[in-house]
From TrEMBL, chain A:
The keyword Protein transport does not apply. Pfam families: SBP_bac_8. This is ABC transporter substrate-binding protein. The lineage of its organism: Bacteria, Bacillati, Actinomycetota, Actinomycetes, Micromonosporales. InterPro entries: Bact_solute-bd_prot1 (IPR050490), SBP (IPR006059). Residues 424-434 have a biased composition (Low complexity).
TrEMBL record, chain B:
One of its GO terms (cellular component) is plasma membrane. GO terms for biological process: transmembrane transport. InterPro entries: ABC_transporter_permease, MetI-like, MetI-like_sf. The keyword Transmembrane helix applies. This is ABC transporter permease. It comes from Micromonospora endophytica. Its main location: membrane. Keywords: Cell membrane, Membrane, Transmembrane, Transmembrane helix, Transport. Signal peptide: none annotated. The chain crosses the membrane at residues 36-59, 97-118, 130-151, 191-211, 232-252, 296-316. Belongs to the binding-protein-dependent transport system permease family.
């Protein structure tokens, strides 16, 4: 029988080929058997792109989109992204870059595709001017990322806890409770006196960041670094003012001390352990994700104490290591188009950085069912066009970490406000020098 | 993990092995070089994954090297001099040694006690023996996350139980000693059973007649344990101490995942439980991305392990001198 071994040989060859196919399918991002190109998108938190991906894949049958990192913490995402870029391997075809880290990535622009070489210049009018400039290198020669969202500020609060404490629950009336931060503290003291079993706010660190971005935006437009990249934590009155306001909040005992983004913070959402949280537009998606469907309709949104402010917001970039640059650039242009901004806003609430999208009825008239039908489009959209951005210097993330950490030590009673301030200055200097 | 207690080669084969006739130079080359070929895989793998990264890390540590930067500048030993004056570095050294001590000592004592229990005639003996190993099979990450929740300040079960007996909740994550205890509990939960099984295996090698003789002489169980079992287990205990030392000084996953949320790599607001490996990560990666400085931390960690290992060897020598001749011979294999 000569046919038998030969057939067996063929079977072995086939199996080996199959195994090869399988391994190659796993080890590289080349598409599997159906000949599609797979584009990987790396994000953190909630970008709200699910619907848009589906739309894009329907219009482009040759492309399959995979998103990684949804719901994750920025603190865990950014080191991973940096490692992928340093190693020259591993990053997605499209990556999200948060504004606080943009400066560090811009310092080494070779890691990214220059979007200006791919016809992005004509899209300039689609973005708020400062948002566009954030994605541009200092010499203006390379565009690293196209803007996604901005973090227009508001104050989210729980209507059920406010009712329990005898405070108004209507968003207009609640907004009138706190035109300024001292008013906010006074309201908090009333809330605290009512003994609802919940704290007034989640964590002093989150509140501090809100206040510092607001005061800095309204003053010189920078906080930890001035625009010539000198560390000014100690001398910038905006930082000290935000620090003092935060200390007043801590002294009044208003903080639940739930370390932001920790397991406890998430549990506190679930068990309605605090009544307010400073919420940039993107935070609404985070609240909904953490508090879960059972809290639907119990949250509402009022205006932020003080005046405006911007916290966060991202860009989408294409790493130079991507094997499908052309397709990835096309996807970035789609996701950051005014329609892309509107789609993301509808899904998870990140506020558009595109004036066209902000003026669109789909945004202006948008309400959020989870937040008691609050007119989110109006609340966040109104301030967005006049947002005063804050400049972020080279080691912004590390310095911010040190200052917020000092807030945390005071909040936990490990340091007095004065000691904490000294720590903040010393550690920020150390971090900036590293 | 097999323990090679005697590192010396077995009896050397007789010299002058007969060679196949008429094979000339090829067989000479074969006889001369093929042994090198046979042992080559280890050395090649070690060179690629051991020696090269070690040397490269050293090279990196002599530079001001931003992780994303393209042109690192050579700065000589500056990273090391800065590191030696860095209070946060020494703080993490103390944390590492502290956690190591309060996890290892109770762990080994408990393991010894467990092994002694398992060595008796129990019903379902195999079942019990397997049961003690189960914690070791679970993933470290899962253990760390669950313990992180158990030791939560407000929603944690441990503080809830303390509250039931009228003790105020403890800040497990921002109190230095409490966080050491919590992390040690995690390490012990995972590794006690493993060490118990190693002790048990060694205990079973102790001849029964020694216990019988002791019993006839009127020694009770406790006396038998301390006068027969423990002395004869000395080499095994030393082995377990060394393995625990290596693991303890490199502790990372447990303390890292014990903390969650913003900047968990810091190990608490005042770096209460930041270990050396966490400090290395914090510097080489987020939020500092200072690859050179992180590499210098890695080298000093290496130095620290070398020092502790040297102390171990000294202790072993001293203990070995006092041990019985047949166990003293085993001291050669320390790893």
């Amino acid at each position: 029988m000569r046919t038998f071994p030969r057939r067996r040989l063929a079977a072995v060859a086939l199996a080996a080929a199959g195994a090869l196919l399988v391994t190659s399918g796993c080890s590289s991002d080349e598409a599997a058997g159906d000949g599609k190109i797979t584009l990987t998108v790396d994000v953190f938190g909630q970008f709200g792109y699910e619907q848009l991906y589906q739309e894009y894949m329907d219009a482009n049958p040759g492309v399959k989109i995979v998103e990684r990192g949804t719901g994750g913490n920025l603190d865990e995402y950014s080191p991973k992204l940096t490692q992928w870029l340093a190693a020259g391997k591993g990053a997605g075809d499209v990556v999200a870059i948060e504004e606080g880290l943009m400066v560090e990535y811009k310092a080494n622009p070779n890691n990214f595709v220059n979007l200006l070489d791919h016809g992005a210049a004509e899209l300039k009018g689609n973005f708020l001017e400062w948002k566009w400039n954030q994605g541009l290198t200092a010499d203006g020669q390379q565009l690293i990322g196209l803007g996604t969202d901005v973090g227009g500020m508001a104050m989210c609060y729980r209507t059920d806890l406010f009712a329990k404490a005898g405070l108004p629950t209507d968003r207009e009336e609640v907004s009138k409770l706190w035109p300024t931060w001292p008013d906010f503290i006074a309201t908090g003291e009333k809330f605290k006196a009512a003994n609802t079993g919940a704290a007034f706010l989640d964590a002093a660190t989150n509140t501090f960041n809100t206040i510092v971005l607001q005061t800095a935006g309204n003053a010189q437009g920078y906080h930890y670094y001035d625009t010539s990249d000198n560390l000014v934590v100690e001398s910038n009155p905006a930082v000290k003012q935000a620090w003092d306001t935060t200390m007043a909040i801590i002294n009044a005992g208003l903080s639940g001390k739930y370390g932001s983004w920790s397991e406890e913070w998430v549990s506190a959402f679930k068990q309605s352990k605090f009544a307010t949280i400073a919420c940039p537009a993107w935070m609404t998606g985070v609240i909904e994700g953490n508090a879960g469907p059972e809290a639907s309709g119990k949250w509402d949104i009022a205006r932020v104490p003080g005046d405006g402010g911007n916290w966060g917001g991202s860009h989408l970039a294409v790493p130079a290591q991507s094997k499908h640059q052309a397709e990835a650039i096309k996807l970035v242009k789609f996701l950051t188009s005014p329609q892309g901004h509107i789609g993301a806003f509808k899904t998870k609430g990140p506020l558009p950085s595109s004036p066209q999208a902000l003026a669109d009825p789909a945004i202006v008239e948008a309400t959020n069912a989870y937040f008691s039908q609050a007119p989110v489009g109006k609340i966040f959209g109104e301030g967005a066009k006049t947002l005063k951005p804050v400049y972020m210097g080279p080691k912004n993330q590390a310095v911010r970490t040190e200052v917020e950490n000092a807030v945390r030590t005071v909040e936990l009673g490990q340091r007095s406000p004065d000691q904490g301030w000294q720590d903040a200055i010393a550690n920020a200097k150390k971090a900036a020098a590293k | 993990m097999a323990l090679q207690l005697d590192a010396r080669p077995p009896v050397t084969p007789a010299t002058g092995t007969p060679r196949p006739a008429g094979s000339g130079w090829w067989s000479r080359i074969d006889a001369k070089y093929s042994p090198y070929l046979y042992i080559a895989p280890f050395f090649v793998v070690f060179a690629v994954f051991g020696a090269w990264p070690l040397a490269y890390t050293f090279w990196v540590s002599l530079h001001d090297w931003d992780l994303l930067g393209t042109d690192p500048t050579f700065i000589g030993a500056e990273n090391y001099t800065r590191l030696l004056a860095d209070v946060d570095f020494w703080h993490s050294v103390v944390n590492t040694l502290g956690i190591f001590l309060i996890s290892t000592v109770p762990q080994l004592l408990l393991a010894l006690w467990l092994a002694n229990l398992l060595n008796r005639h129990l019903r379902l003996r195999t079942g019990w023996r397997m049961a003690v190993l189960i914690p070791n099979v679970t993933s470290t990450a899962a253990v760390a996350i669950v313990f992180g929740v158990l030791f939560g300040r407000e929603f944690g079960m441990v503080n809830w139980l303390l509250d039931l007996v009228g003790i105020d909740g403890i800040e497990w994550k921002s109190n230095r000693f409490a966080s050491w205890v919590a992390i040690s509990a995690m390490v012990d939960w995972r590794w006690t059973g493993y060490n118990a099984l190693i002790f048990l295996a060694a205990m079973q090698a102790i001849p029964r007649d020694m216990y019988e003789a002791a019993a006839i002489d009127g020694a009770n169980r406790a006396r038998q344990f301390w006068s027969i079992t423990v002395p004869l287990l000395k080499p095994t205990i030393i082995f377990c101490v060394i393995i625990s030392t290596i693991g303890g000084l490199q502790l990372f996953t447990e303390p890292r995942l014990f903390h969650s949320g913003t900047n968990a790599i810091r190990g608490g607001p005042l770096r209460e439980s930041q270990t050396l490996t966490m400090y290395m990560f914090e510097n080489a990666f987020a939020p500092y991305y200072n690859f050179g400085y992180g590499s210098a931390v890695a080298w000093l960690l290496f130095a620290l392990i070398a020092i502790v290992a040297a102390i171990n060897v000294l202790i072993i020598r001293r203990l070995g001198a006092g041990a019985r001749p047949d166990t003293g011979k085993r001291k050669g294999g320390t790893r």
